[in-house]
């Protein structure tokens, strides 16, 4: 049928004739103004406080609320440990490119790509499969991960983000919210506790020494 | 006065000289007829062809420009609607006056002729093109007994005058002193001449059938039911004629002569102002001429597609109504206007009373126009014929516009190859088959 000469012309003519009767796409602008899309929020802008520094503290609330996911941003977490970002990594990397930052007059961070240790992902993948890769069960996933690895390695968080589709920053936010989840290996914690203990004992011994040197001038109320 | 005259362009100088002369001549003629009386009237009565020619030439010149305006507007609007746009909608109702405004704009533009150009030929070229378009209108029978002249070689005349277009295009290309204009002119000449051959050959079969070249006689031959139309006896001829006529009128998909989107306007590169306007108008008058020609040759001319029992002659004797007529004239319009306005006022509280009255007035006028046209349609066969002819012609104008909104432009080698390798053999085949069929039938 398509080999029939002239059939293409007939088809094209039929198409234009159909278009002739269809509703038109034109909006007569000055008289008719269409409503702004209900998810439109205006122009994106970073605000400065009265000291001239950016008010943005990289909380990702804007990126999280953005209905069309057009915001991507990055920064260093509040404890200065990990670099976290929102949005596609390649976009992010481009934005964080050093010369771009220098051109825009912003400080170039040192920890742009902080090194993190790799993990053996098989156990984590098994956990994720158990929870059906469901980002809504993130807390259970994180707890299971911590039970498996002892803490939450950055590589594990990245893998969870990759497999569940949840933004890394959301996982990071969940993980920092709960006190029982930790980012450090548990071995470090007893050490820290021990350090705290030694510090306390040193304090008491120091105070005891002080008391002894000041003996007489002060009543032994502390004992 | 002299200074402002000196400021006018050449066209303006001619116009402002010719109009007073024409006015004086017309006044003189009227005075002559009034004073001279009977001899002059007798002379005119014995030489009706002269009166007919003058009236026809005037009418054709007067109607060609509005026709062009109408077709230009139609083209803008229809193509826009086919592109899912609205198109012109600012000037006049639904933008219908936009082409008129374009015409005025073109009139007010600078009339420029390039250094080194042949001024005389440069000025005459658009005139030749426009006249060749308009002169073919003279022989088109638009209604029974309504035509400029009924030549027995009418069709030959149409092709001859239509061929004059090439001369105009070549004049324009040559006199512009611009190699691109010259190339454009030569290109369009090659196209138009190539398509002239299948165009002419495609109607030879028709001429064998009809035995006449008079366009009026051809239209008369097709009276009665629509099966008498020549398109049913010459379908291939009609198709070839349609395609070749499209190329002849420089319409898409064969509009290489002034392919506005790919070359600098071809032969019209150096033209501006009203001289360009004449080329532009000529194109659209040509569209109408070609449509009218197709209708006359193949689609029954001014005949209705079925035997219409006209004239019905409504014998309303207005004189017998006496004083009642006066009352009717006085009372019917306001009462009808108010009656037509009332539904609007009642139906919508947003419409104020004066707006409703205006609406009623417009509706009343529309009703009267429809009534008078309908009355004329059934009473006089020339009105009916004119309406049928215009209706059919504008169907073909619509098809031309429709094609422009759909088809892409062909390449120059495709254009030439199509004319010489396909249309010419097909038209020859059509001619031979028709001739053979006639021989068989007559034996």
Summarize the structure.
The complex is a heterodimer of chains A (223) and B (443). Chain A is built from nine helices and two strands. By secondary structure, chain A is mainly alpha-helical.
What does this structure look like?
Chain A has 223 residues and is mainly alpha-helical. Chain A is built from 9 helices and 2 strands. Chain A has helices at residues 7-21, 61-65, 89-95, 98-103, 122-130, 138-149, 154-164, 168-177, 188-213; strands spanning 73-76, 83-86. In chain A, strands 1-2 form a two-stranded antiparallel sheet. With 443 residues, chain B is mostly helical. Chain B folds into 3 domains: 2-46; 67-310 and 381-442, no CATH class; 318-379, no CATH class. At the A-B interface, helix 1 of A face helix 4 and helix 15 of B.
Task: List the keywords.
heterodimer, A: 223 residues, mainly alpha, 45% helix, B: 443 residues, 16 helices
Secondary structure elements and their pairing?
The complex is a heterodimer of chains A (223) and B (443).
Chain A: H1 7-21, H2 61-65, E1 73-76, E2 83-86, H3 89-95, H4 98-103, H5 122-130, H6 138-149, H7 154-164, H8 168-177, H9 188-213
Antiparallel strand pairs in A: 1-2
Chain B: H1 2-7, H2 10-36, H3 38-46, H4 48-82, H5 98-108, H6 119-137, H7 154-175, H8 179-202, H9 204-210, H10 215-221, H11 235-248, H12 273-298, H13 323-347, H14 353-379, H15 381-406, H16 412-442
């Amino acid at each position: 049928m398509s080999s029939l000469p002239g059939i293409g012309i007939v088809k094209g003519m039929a198409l234009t004739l159909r278009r002739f009767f269809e509703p038109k796409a034109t909006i007569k602008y000055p008289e008719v103004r269409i409503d702004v899309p209900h998810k439109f929020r205006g122009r994106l802008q970073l605000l400065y406080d009265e000291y001239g520094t950016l008010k943005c503290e990289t909380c990702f609330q804007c990126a999280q609320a953005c209905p069309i996911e057009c915001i991507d941003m990055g920064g260093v977490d509040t404890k200065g440990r990990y670099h976290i970002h929102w949005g596609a990594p390649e976009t992010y990397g481009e934005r964080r490119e050093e010369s771009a930052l220098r051109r825009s007059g912003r400080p170039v961070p040192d920890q742009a790509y902080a090194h993190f240790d790799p993990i053996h992902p098989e156990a984590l993948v098994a956990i994720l499969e158990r929870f059906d890769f469901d980002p809504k069960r993130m807390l259970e996933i994180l707890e299971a991960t911590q039970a498996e690895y002892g803490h939450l390695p950055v590589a594990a968080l990245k893998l969870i983000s990759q497999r569940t589709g949840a933004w890394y920053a959301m996982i990071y936010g969940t993980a920092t919210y709960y006190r029982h989840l930790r980012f450090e290996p548990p071995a470090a914690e007893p050490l820290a506790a021990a350090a705290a203990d030694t510090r306390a004992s040193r304090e008491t011994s120091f105070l005891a020494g002080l008391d002894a040197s000041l003996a007489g001038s002060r009543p032994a109320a502390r004992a | 006065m002299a200074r402002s005259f000196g400021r006018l362009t050449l066209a303006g100088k001619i116009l402002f000289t010719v109009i007073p002369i024409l006015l004086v001549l017309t006044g003189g003629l009227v005075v002559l007829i009034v004073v001279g009386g009977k001899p002059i009237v007798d002379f005119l009565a014995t030489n009706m062809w002269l009166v007919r020619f003058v009236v026809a030439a005037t009418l054709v010149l007067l109607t060609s420009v509005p026709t062009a305006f109408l077709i230009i507007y139609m083209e803008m609007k229809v193509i826009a609607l086919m592109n899912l746009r609205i198109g012109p909608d600012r000037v006049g109702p639904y933008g219908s006056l936009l082409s008129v405004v374009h015409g005025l704009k073109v009139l007010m533009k600078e009339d420029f002729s390039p250094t080194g150009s042949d001024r005389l030929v440069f000025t005459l070229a658009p005139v030749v093109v426009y006249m060749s378009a308009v002169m073919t209108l003279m022989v088109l029978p638009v209604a029974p007994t309504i035509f400029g002249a009924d030549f027995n070689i009418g069709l030959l005349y149409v092709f001859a005058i239509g061929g004059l277009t090439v001369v105009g295009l070549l004049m324009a290309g040559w006199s512009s002193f611009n190699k691109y204009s010259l190339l454009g002119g030569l290109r369009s000449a090659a196209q138009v001449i190539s398509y002239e051959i299948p165009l002419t050959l495609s109607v030879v079969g028709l001429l064998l059938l009809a035995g006449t070249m008079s366009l009026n006689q051809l239209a008369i031959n097709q009276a009665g039911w629509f099966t008498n139309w020549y398109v049913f006896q010459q379908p291939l001829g009609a198709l070839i004629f349609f395609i070749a006529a499209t190329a002849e009128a420089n319409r898409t998909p064969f509009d290489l002569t002034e392919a506005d989107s790919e070359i600098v306007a071809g032969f019209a590169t150096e033209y501006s102002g009203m001289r360009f306007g004449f080329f532009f108008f000529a194109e659209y008058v040509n569209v109408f001429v070609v449509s009218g020609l197709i209708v006359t040759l193949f689609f029954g001319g001014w005949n209705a597609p079925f035997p219409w029992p006209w004239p019905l002659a409504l014998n309303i004797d207005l004189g017998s109504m006496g004083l009642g007529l006066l009352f009717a004239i006085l009372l019917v319009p306001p009462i009808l206007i108010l009656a037509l306005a009332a539904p609007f006022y009642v139906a919508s509280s947003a419409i104020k009373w004066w707006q409703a009255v205006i609406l009623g007035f417009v509706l009343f006028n529309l009703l009267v126009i429809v009534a008078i046209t309908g009355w004329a349609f059934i009473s006089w066969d020339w009105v009916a014929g004119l309406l049928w002819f215009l209706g059919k012609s504008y169907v073909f104008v619509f098809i031309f516009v429709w094609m422009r909104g759909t088809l892409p432009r062909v390449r120059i080698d495709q254009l030439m190859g199509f004319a010489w390798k396909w249309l010419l053999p097909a038209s020859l085949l059509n001619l031979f088959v028709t001739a053979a069929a006639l021989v068989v039938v007559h034996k």
